[in-house]
User: What shape does this take?
Amino acid sequence: MLKFIDLLFKKKINFDEKKYYKWINSSKNFEKLDNLGIIPTSLLIGINDQKNQIINNTIKFAKGYKTNNALLWGVRGNGKSTLVKSIFKELSIEFNYLKLIELNKEDIGQILDIYKILNKHRNFRFIIFIDDLSFEKSDIEYKNIKSMIDGTISNQPNNIVIYVTSNRRHLMPEDMIDNEKSSAIHTHENIEEKISLSDRFGLWIGFHNLSQEDYLKIIKSYCKYFKVEITENDLKKSISWSISRGNRSGRTAWQYFLELASDKNVIIDF
Assistant: This one.
């Protein structure tokens, strides 16, 4: 019986057709996706340092250099996955051989086989994107995934870079690490083993809660770009909106903007 990789090659994968793909584990194949539906990077405000790091790393990778894998970590809703996709969408216009492969965290076990496929297409440069990767308190789950990622990075072809997002810097709950520190029977080496997974990524890029100033700038920039009139009273309402949700994030700003646009009878289509 042929391995599924051989079957994939018989299907004649053509990465010329699209820029964006998703690995579908059930069919052991890549699904071609038409539209990322992502806002321009110019509208991603308050994360300029993070933006520049990913842009620079991605440009170098697209030009053929061996570059660092990146872990984008921090509070939810502040643009980690949007940033990766927006930068890819814009840079892929200049570098049309740059491709984005989205991989669900549940399918990380297939990544070495995916490597074998992508490594056969050396005329393309692939970003493997894993969104919202984190672990709960199961040591078995953590060690299994850690072993997989260790293997994926050590065997990573030169035409592949990995971008991962997580709400945790060490990809696991802090109390898992704290429990190690509080137990007399665990050694320093055990603690280091718990936090070593994130060290496999050369770039650590943190995302934090927005200031009120940046939050308001985001809303104003959305209104200007999409031609939605905004008043001082609307801005005051946006602050109340963020308070009711308990955070100031890019996602909260976007949600308020959609509410505002619909109230003003403006259809948002991008």
Remarks:
- The radius of gyration is 21 Å.
- The beta strands are 20-24, 29-33, 70-74, 98-102, 125-130, 160-166, 203-207.
- Confidence is low (pLDDT under 50) at residues 180-193.
- The first helix runs from residue 4 to 10.
